[in-house]
Amino acid sequence: MADQVAAFRNVANVLRAAQQVAIEVQNAPERRKVLRGFPHAECAALLGMTRPELRAMARRVLPDAPPARARFTFDQLSRLHRAGGTLPAAPLRRDPAMEALATVVFTNFKGGSAKTTSSVHFAQFLALAGYRVLLVDLDSQGSATAQFGFDPAREAGPDESFAAWTAARDTGAAVSAAALCRHTYWPTIDLVPAGPALAAAEDSLARRAASGQLEETLYFDEFNAFLKALPSIYDVVVVDTRPDVNMLMTAALHGATGIVVPTRATMTDLASTGEFFAHLAGYIGDFTAAFGGGLSLAFARILVTAFDPTDRSQEALLSLARDRFDDMVLARPFLHSRILGTAGLGKETLYEYEATTDRAAYQRALASVNAVNRLIEQDVLAFWGRPLPANAL
After folding, report:
1. In what helix (H) or strand (E) does residue 56 lie, and over which residues does it extend?
2. Which residues of 297-316 are buried (b: 16+ CB within 10 A; e: fewer)?
3. CATH of span 102-383
4. 8 A C-beta contact, residue 263 and residue 269
5. Radius of gyration in angstroms for the set of CA atoms belonging to the chain, rounded to a whole number
6. Could you tell me which residues are beta bridge partners of residue 238?
7. Please, which residues bridge with residue 11 across strands?
8. Where are the alpha helices (DSSP H) in 231-386?
């Protein structure tokens, strides 16, 4: 038994260390993740203009405009967004007095559906489009947390994750939602991290569900209470949940503006996704019977991930899903690409990775994820009562 315990601890320690080394080596000498600069061609594409138009606008708007072969910082890109250019005159960010905070929950039963990959890419897409984003990691594996360069085991303890919120609510102690929102190397993305300590939050909500505590601390309203306590600086909250039935996922659904359900186009994955929707339908029915009302979802979308358009079986299953479920299935799938695996070696997303070879494959993958995220952004804008800007990211 002692040998087995030692062996298991060794596996944990080696893999934790490997993750941290990957981050530190990739981001030397800072040893923390930093956001790369953006080449002129990429910025021009993001802003919907030609490179000469970009250079002219930069000279007009930025006192610190970079030379032609240098790169724009994220701050410079944000200032170009705010300056307008070819973008709409109306600000992209929400008006807290007129538009409610939007919360998009990425969820499914099935692991390996690219749920975390999809949620992190959506958060970064929104940041590049000019929004202020909070990413809440509600998966104790902490994959989204690690993606942002934090160690889930060491930097998402009981006082640093959503577990701190539920613990304070259990005891009646004062707790600041804003204090749990950590700044990241993306200037307009904050993170509520997750790690093994998040299990305490799950236990807390389960105890409340079993005991029927007072209304103000009922399990299903806990995430809603957290959202209401956030400062008004955020436009969109993106939530990554654990891939099974759990109390944190259920609580997050009660605070959701909309849900995105990632799935692969295989019979196994689609069957699991079907069971997720069966669970959701059953839960809403039971909840409505017990409490009245259900989930206030403005939208629910199925996102097909890791899609290979040359695979006839995947194409057939995607067509079947679209035929049966109409616009619930997002019109564009997230394409399969080996570039994602290459970027993942350094804990990078497609928005952070810089392709040195096979740029055509990288551009295809990036175009795919941009197309997916535009569609989800459109749902958020519809929730606010706004049309999607024709020349948005």
Report:
1. helix 51-61
2. ebbbbbbbbbbeeeeeebee
3. 3.40.50.300
4. yes
5. 21
6. 104, 135
7. none
8. 247-254, 267-291, 312-325, 338-344, 359-383
Which residue has tokens 């009302």?
A: 293
pTM tops 0.90, yes or no? no
Kindly state the tokens that stand for 135.
């990413």
- Crossing angle, helix 162-171 and helix 222-229, to 10 degrees? 100
Q: How far is CA 23 from the centre of its chain?
A: 20
Residue with tokens 């039963």: 109
| CA angle centred on 149, ends 147 and 155, rounded to 5° | 110
Distance in angstroms (rounded) separating the CA atoms of residues 63 and 71: 14
SS3 state at 242:
coil
Domain range annotation of the chain: 2-83, 102-383
pLDDT in tens, the chain (393 residues): 656 656 656 776 666 566 566 555 555 555 567 888 888 887 887 777 888 988 899 988 898 888 888 899 988 888 887 776 444 444 578 888 899 999 999 999 888 889 999 999 999 999 988 899 999 999 999 999 999 989 898 899 899 999 999 999 888 888 899 999 999 999 999 999 999 999 999 998 888 887 765 454 577 888 999 999 999 999 999 999 999 889 999 999 999 999 999 999 999 988 888 898 999 899 888 888 878 777 889 999 999 999 888 999 999 999 988 888 888 999 999 998 888 877 776 678 999 988 777 788 888 888 899 999 999 999 999 999 987 655 444
- Beta carbons of 254 and 221 less than 8 angstroms apart: yes
Q: Could you give the CA distance from residue 46 to residue 392 in angstroms, rounded to a whole number?
A: 8
User: Position of tokens 């009245």?
Assistant: 292
- Relative to beta strand 182-183, strand 189-192 is antiparallel
Locate 339 and state its tokens.
């570039």
- Of 29, 25, 28, 47, nearest to 38 by C-alpha is 47
100: CB partners within 8 A, 6+ apart:
257, 383, 384
| Residue 209 to residue 218: CA distance in whole angstroms | 7
